[in-house]
Amino acid sequence: MDVEDIAHTIERFVRSHFSVSPRDPRFGPTARLFDDGYVDSMGVAELIAFIEDAFGVAVPDEALMSDEFATIAGMARVVAGLRGASAARERVAAGGEP
Amino acid sequence: MTGTTRIEATYPGQRRRPVDAPPGQGTVLVGALDRGFAIDATDRINAAALAPGAPPPTALAGALGAAIFGENGRVRLLRDPLGLGKLFWARGDDGRILLAARPIRLVEAGCRFDDIHALPLGTCVDLDPESGATAVSPIVLWPDPAEAGPGQPGGRPVDPATATDPDGAEPGHPAGSAAEDAREPMSSSGTPAGTGESEPLLRSLDALAARIRDDLHRYCRALAERFADRRIYVCLSGGLDSTGVLILAREYFTDVVAVSFDLDRARRTPSEDRATARRLARELSVPLLEVTVGEDVLLEPVDTVIAEGIDWRDFNVHAALVNAALARGIAEEEAARGVPSGPGATPDTANHATAAPTDPPALVFTGDLMNEFLADYREETYRGATHYRLPRLPPGRLRDALVRGLETSHREIGVFEAWGLPVVQLYAGAAAALLRLPGSFLGTPDAKQRLNRAVHGGRIPEYVYARGKARAQIGDPRTGRGVLALCVERGLDEAEFRRRFARLHRTDPTAGPGRFIRAGHYRSAVPCRD
Description:
By secondary structure, chain A is mostly helical. Chain A has helices at 3-17, 41-55, 61-64, 72-93. Chain A is built from 4 helices and no strands. Chains A and B meet through helix 2 and helix 3 of A and helix 10, strand 18 and strand 19 of B.
């Protein structure tokens, strides 16, 4: 699953879970989800839970507060990085190369 | 975080009060810090053990947000693992690091709101100006639940389906909630499906309750060792949590006063909370301080509670308004008995290196944290609108989210401190064990009653067990009697609170607050050299 696939998955969730209008011209991968009001303070917890369950990652606090984690595109890059790091750890644990 | 930290000799004789440190020198404390009551692995409140030069603490229980100044300019910054204690910092234009217990203090000192960070929770930071080094070490919850095995008191949660240890447990953190919730099928009511719990789960819950009880007593012993002769005010709503606190306070302290809040809305009869508090105080032979305020008096300190509670979210502001009323009532009582309170008090806690001569004359005990530990919140509907929305998550994940949000909640400690009153959140002493409660248990409708019976048994009267949820801060919005209803009627909604927060902190109301708090976390960083 590449970054684009991750972004599409997150976008589908946000559109359906937070009832984003399909005709909203401002919404997209680069929309600032929190600043623009698409996801409120309660919704953040729901979004994080979805990301952690869907992609098998734990979002660290520093990533959560980063500017990257403000848009779908940024979240996808964060998730891809976490998945890559996790895969590397698993390879090392199995005696392989990182 | 970029920028050079020029830590030079710390201003000698530094105290908790605002200081006029020479420009360009060191680390400066702006305003007073909140009093902390954390215990360490010695099961004591041990200020000396937290000072710079001593080994950094590895585990704490209780609230602590401290800045301790040592010899040769060394400074130790501490924040407890749950983030109950608050400590914020920003770098001044001259390179000094400014520290404060509230971001508004730093804004008033000239810092930009967007430049303010919280010290990360569960962190000990040692700044050494001589070597230029910054040492950062983690602090986990005490007692460390990882020391216990699966199903053991304080150990990892028991999988209700298999009675085996779920994966992914980490010391000091809600363990395995995600995996547990995934295995546990959810009924349409949001509670675990199935007709009952397994025998291993029941045995585990009894053992866990015993651990919780032991930890609460451990914490009380530590508090009594230091403050046995102090007046203890117990905020008493008449619900299970506050009654449990009162029971414990009476066992360890000799001067205990219960405090009850009620909102005067031209009602002739007292609220159910007040009536229950009166009965409890009478039966337990505890004096009761009744704090009854009118609507205007209740709402007068809105800006204060927003600034001191560091919050704009409606539930927290409503709760903070009640706490402000209680704090004012207690402060008046203290003044009446000739005891000064207020920011001038300089208690001997871990917040400064030099022990001040005066300990706090009184402490306020609260039972608030249990709502997070048990995910015991519900949404409220008033005039057709839903308030206090909760994340749509299974019980274990909901608990995790609510506990995570404790880092950014200061509706108790912050507000009472604004009236010079230190707060002990008693259930913080058993946080590690409480976080081991499995999600399947939290999802049962009578979880709080069952847990309290296991912990306190018959020491809590049956009529308290039989009560519905007592929300001292909220009242009953259905009958228009609570703080929620009052705020709605006065146009004080969350958007208004957010605007006020932004105005007080001189930031943009749209983006500023949201960049400061996200998913229950503060914008956090460690002050260090490049």
